[in-house]
Design brief:
Blueprint (H helix, E strand, L loop, with lengths): L3 E7 L3 H12 L4 E5 L22 H13 L4 E4 L2 E7 L2 E6 L4 E9 L3 E4 L6 H4 L4 E2 L2 H4 L8 E4 L5 H8 L6 E4 L13 E3 L3 E5 L2 E4 L3 E4 L2 E4 L2 E4 L12 E5 L2 E6 L13 E3 L10 H20 L1
Parallel strand pairs: 1-2, 1-6, 2-3, 6-19, 8-15, 9-10, 9-15, 10-11
Antiparallel strand pairs: 4-5, 5-6, 7-16, 12-13, 13-14, 17-18
Helix pairs in contact: 1-2, 1-6
């Protein structure tokens, strides 16, 4: 491995590998640093990805790594603890003790789903605990589904999920839930726990459900950028904080010269195919920037 690269890509998911592939084909010296903790790891397949529908997430990454390596991209399995200026370059320090420098950085570390503190949600996450109808709706179509309220935005989720099932129950979990469609059954009270059979509500009530929907808060994986002065901002929907993200322009360029972002770390709501496209777009601009 070389110590100095044209570009270090931090994060090896769809956005990172797509960007690395683009830069490798542009004959750039590229290093990808990936911690091996993709957000979609629990899912059985990637959806809405033209040409790769239903591909297991791990298989998609394996294919992406092989493709990137075929163009000279180097990949190291580690996590970045700190990124900072080193003269005209950037230095990236890894948890395993190694450090590398690059002329540019492409950050594609994604987000972490922060689940409500309800027993059972984490165990079922990505299997029978779901968040996105476009990601999982087809797989649970026409089955009994429950939605646990975490904010007033649950009314929007309830309306959307009626496209996939007529048997929908909304658990208020002691939240105000105005605007819920009349076809959706509402169950009041705090949710005590969930399991693969359904939802347990305070007072001993149990409602059988095949799948449970819950809205998470998305937190950008970007703490290692602090020394560069690159801070996250809060994304709100209807006044409700739903995510943190690293702001950038339409091509992924951040406020810090030489640093680009792509994928969920800057666009928390994007699905896999959109994240991959963002990685390619940012990489093409980085390549041009290196020519100037």
């Amino acid at each position: 491995m070389s110590e100095r690269y044209d570009v270090i890509v931090i994060g090896g998911g769809a956005a990172g590998l797509s960007g690395a592939l683009t830069l490798g084909r542009a004959r750039r010296r590229v290093l990808v640093v990936d911690g091996g903790q993709p957000r979609n790891a629990p899912a059985e397949g990637v959806h809405n990805y033209l040409g790769r529908e239903n591909t297991p997430p791990g298989e998609l990454l394996r294919i992406g790594r092989e493709e990137a390596r075929s163009y000279g991209v180097e990949i190291v399995e580690d996590t970045v603890e700190r990124a900072h200026r080193d003269g005209e370059d950037f230095r990236v320090e890894l948890a395993g003790g190694s450090s590398f420098t690059a002329r540019r950085l492409l950050v594609t570390t994604g987000v972490v789903d922060e689940l409500p503190d309800i027993p059972g949600l984490a165990e079922g996450w990505g299997h029978w605990v779901l968040h996105c109808p476009y990601c999982h709706g087809w797989e649970v179509r026409d089955q009994p589904i429950g939605i646990i309220a975490t904010s007033p935005l649950v009314a929007h989720a309830a309306l959307l999920w009626t496209q996939w099932t007529a048997d929908l129950v909304l658990f208020t979990n002691n939240h105000e839930v105005p605007g819920v469609p009349a076809s959706v059954r509402i169950v009041e009270g705090a949710v005590e726990k969930v399991d693969a059979q359904g939802v347990h509500v305070a007072g001993g009530q149990f409602v059988e459900r095949a799948a449970i929907v819950v809205q998470t808060t998305l937190a950008a994986r970007a703490g290692f950028l602090d020394d560069l002065g690159l801070k996250t901002e809060v994304l709100e929907m209807q006044g409700v904080p739903v995510a943190t993200y690293v702001p950038a322009d339409a091509m992924g360029k951040t406020a810090v010269p030489g640093v680009w972002v792509a994928g969920n770390v800057t666009d928390p709501m994007s699905q896999v195919i959109v994240a991959a496209a963002g990685g390619m777009k940012a990489a093409s601009v980085i390549n041009m920037d290196l020519l100037l």
